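Now for my pick.
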Amino acid sequence: MTNTPYQTTFKHLSDMKEQIGKELGLSEWIKIDQATINAFAKLTKDEQWIHVDPERAAKESPYKKPIAHGFLVLSFASDFSFQCLAFENVAMGVNYGFDKIRFINATPVDARIRGRVSLLEYEQKENAAKYKLGLTIEIEGQEKPACVAEWIAMAYEK
C-alpha cells in the first residue's frame, strides 16, 4: 500500500469491473480541530463533554483530550471518495447509502485523518453502474483506523 495520495479515473463506467477488489485511491490528510468538533456537536445537538469540554476530557477521558464524534469522521466520506475516484463520462451519481459501518478507534482532537477507498462490487446496468466502495478512514500514527465502511452508489453515463 502506498502512502502517497492518488486518484483512479475511469473513462467509462465499465472500466471499473477490472478494479474489483483493488484500491482506487488515497486522500489527503484532514485535521480534525476543536472548532470542527464543536460545530458538529452544535449542529447535531450532541454536545457531550467528551467532545466539547477539553478541561473535563483532560481529567476524565481515557484519551486525555476531546474526541471527534464518529459520525463527524464519517461525514468526510464523500470528500474522500471524490479525492480517490473520478469519472470522465458520468452525468449523475446517486448515493444509496452505507451498507456497513464500524467505528473502530476514537479520533482525538487535532488528529489527522484520511480516506483509503477500494472497489468491492460492480454491477453493469443499462447506461449505468451500481457499485460498492470500501472506505477505511485512517488516523495518522494509529494502527487501528477510525472507521471502516461500505457504501452503495450508482452512476449514470452521459
The helical segments are 34-44, 49-52, 54-60, 70-74, 77-84.
